[in-house]
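Let's practice the habit of predicting before peeking. Look at the sequence and jot down your guess about where helices and strands might fall. Then scroll down.
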Amino acid sequence: MSRPPAWQAEHPVGDARAAALVAAQWPAMAAQPLERLGTGWDNDAYLLAHRLVVRFPRRRVAVPLIRTEAALLP
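Done guessing? Here is the structure:
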């Protein structure tokens, strides 16, 4: 199995998928504006409802990092 180029996401998110993920996880927020803030090596970041930042992992290695961060931060 070949590996994607270093910067290419293993799991691309994109605006439509980000909106679908928000709607699936937080149905009450589905109608709120969702604006892409940026793309990093391991996450895509979006501004939700003009006040919340949500991140979606672009590669498998980012998932445990997000879990650790969520466990450690209040």
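How did you do? The radius of gyration is 13 Å.
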